[in-house]
Amino acid sequence: KSLVTYSEMRRESTAPPDSFSFAFILKATANLKSLRVGFQLHCRALAHGLDTHLFVGTTLISMYAECECFGFAQKVFEEMFEPNVVAWNAVVNACFRCDDVKGAEKMFKRMPFRNVMLWNVMLAGYTKVGELILSNKLFHEMPMKDDVYWSSMIVGFAHSGFFE
User: What pLDDT digit, counting tens, does each position of 42-87 carry?
Assistant: First the structure.
């Protein structure tokens, strides 16, 4: 229904979409895993100057990752003027979604800052792909551990059959 409504809006309105509505149509495209529509929307974002909005750029990264096109996700990220913490999270998540653990590690090392959320993205990513040794190593490198970190480790070990 989101894509149909967007198409109706384009036919019936002279106003271009704003960054907020555009990001949600990209999210719908990601949920459908429709790379063709994603490419078309990316072109529309470029035409309307929405590609420079962090919200749209971050959603483009996620959409390309959901469609298993990490190269495009990384290109969008690299073209961002000043990626914020959400954009960094999106590109690291994109690496893990595309089974690129080494890429996630490289991006994590490039990050100019590491907050609680970024550490948890790496930890959760490692556990989701079954890299418990790397997850455990990262866990012990963390400067502070909160309930989310502990829970991520417990869930990771339990999902991998380490119950003791």
Answer: 999 999 889 889 999 999 999 999 999 999 999 999 999 999 999 9
- Mapping DSSP to helix (H, G, I), strand (E, B) and coil, where does residue 119 land? helix
b/e per residue, 87-116, with b = 16+ CB within 10 A? bbbbbbbbbbbbebbebbbebbeebeebee
Distances (CA, A) of 114 to 53, 78, 91: 22, 18, 14
Token match 């913490």: residue? 85
The reported pTM is 0.85
DSSP sequence for 88-113: HHHHHHHHHHTT-HHHHHHHHHH-S-
State the Cα–Cα distance between residues 156 and 107, nearest whole angstrom: 22
Written as six digits, the tokens of 39 are 């490419």
Residue type, 74: Q
Buried-state track 46-74, b at ≥16 Cβ within 10 A, e below 16: eeeebbebbbbbbbbbbbbbbbebbebbb
Coil, helix or strand at residue 39: helix
User: How many C-beta neighbours within 10 Å does residue 156 have?
Assistant: 22
Which amino acid is residue 121, in one-letter code? V
Contact indicator for 63, 32 with CB cutoff of 8 Å: no
